[in-house]
Amino acid sequence: MEMNYLVVGYGQIGQELVRQLTERGDRVTVVKRSGMAQRRGVEVIQGDVQEVLPELSSDRFDGVFNCMHAPYSAHAWRDVLIPREKQLLEWAGDVPVVFPESVYAWGTGAQELKEGDPVEPASPLGEVRAQLLRNREACGGRTVSVVAADLIGPTASLAGAVFHQLVFDRVMRGRRPLGMGDVRAPRSITYIPDLVRGMMYAVEIAHDLPSVVHAPVLAPVSQVELARAFARVASKSETSGVIQIPWTVMKVTGLFSQTFRELHNQRYLWDSPHVLHTGMLADLPVTSLDVALKECVLRREKASL
């Protein structure tokens, strides 16, 4: 049966959502700030979600995927995301709303995170994510936040996926990859198409799920192992090692860059292992690391043609 979904935001996750939803025959309405090419089965509404929602009826949708984002700063997240999410939740009413979510709200607990662990933020970014989770819980509607680890995938952006920026892009250019913190510590990775499948499953059974579930994740690998695997799959020379960015450099650079300042605040996520355990969605398929990396390489090669 054809379903009708609203997707707010068309970044690295929203793009993959639209692709998978339309490929299975669902109809999709996308709200995004800028225009996009016409796509079969997709209605595009250009504008800020705060201005668009009053013109839409939530009754026409079977579910909502909120993929809106903002620049990488606690100030921007607080000013942009909190009011827009509140408006969206009020507008949605009983229509289920599914969110992709990071591990930031769990602070140091993200070093070994299981479903149901308490929210205990340890940074300004984490405080904002915790507030968003509280607002979703208190809205009275049906929301599901699907928590992901570090993202990789064909639609990933350099600005939104740290491994694409520090590892994949540099290896493709014949340069040594960069890393943060303990580059040999195991880290969970979420492949964006796997995350999206988890979100699509969650919206269908939202009333049977807790408000927070964990996305399917690949087996943990270190930054060194990831760099080697990517070089092998991309048929590039094996890297001679990962260059570890000193935190002192990040701190000094943070005096002039909000992004680096926030990354320095998140150092607790990089100085230790980061393992995300899947629970309710554990039976969903997980793409192998080699296949995931190959898809990333193919997208990069296609974009360069």
UniProtKB/TrEMBL annotation:
All copies of domain NAD-dependent epimerase/dehydratase, residue ranges: 6-204
InterPro entries cross-referenced by the UniProt entry: Epimerase_deHydtase (IPR001509), NAD(P)-bd_dom_sf (IPR036291)
Signal peptide: none
Superkingdom, taxonomy of origin: Bacteria
Name listed for the protein in its UniProt record: NAD-dependent epimerase/dehydratase domain-containing protein
Species the sequence originates in: Brevibacterium paucivorans
